[in-house]
Write the C-alpha cells for this entry.
Amino acid sequence: MIEVRRYAREIVPTFNAYIYFRVGYSIARAVARFLYRVRLGFADERTLAGVPPNTAVVFVMNHRSNMDYILVAFLAAERTALSYAVGEWARIWPLQQLIRSMGAYFVRRNSNSPIYRRVLERYVHMATEAGVAQAMYPEGGLSRDGRLREPKLGLFDYMLKRMTSSSCRWRSTTTACSRIARCCARSTARRRGAAPGSRRARHSASGWASSA
C-alpha cells in the first residue's frame, strides 16, 4: 500500500485553474508568438459544439517538437484545459511543480513494475471517465525526421477499458511548422527589409483540429 501511495503522488497532478489559464496561458502565448506566427488552419466547431457533457475529448496529434505542448495548449486554452502525459525528463525543479499544477501527469516509460502500471492505468481511466480533456501523442515520443513512428497504445488501452464508445470522443490534430534555415532567413530578411531576428523572419506555425 505504501508503494501504491508513492506512485499515486508521483502520477496524479495538482491542477490549478488560475495557474493554467492565467500564468500558463500567458507564458504559452508569449513564447508561441515570439517564436512563431501562429494561426489556426481549421477547427471543426460544429462537431466540437455537439460533444455531450461529461464526455472526454482526446486530441490525437503528431509530435515533432517539444513546442507542440505549448502551441496546442495555447490554441485550445480559450475552450478547455488539456492534460498531457509527460516524460521523466521534465521532473526537475521548478518545472515539475509547474507542469503538475497545469494538469499534466508524469509517466515512467521504461518502468516494468506491475504495481506502477496498475496505478497509472487506474488514474488514466478515472481521468477519462471524469471527462478530462486530454492530448495524446500515439508515437510516445518525438519524431526526428517528421515521419510517423510505430504507435505505442498503452495509454489508449487504459482510456478505453470498461468505457463505452460514447464516453470518449477522438479528435485528430496536426501541428505544422515551416522552418527557415539561418542563412535563408538572413537573406530573406534583407530582401524584405526585416532584421534576421525580427518577427517577420521567424518561423510560422499552424494548427488543425478535425473530427475523427
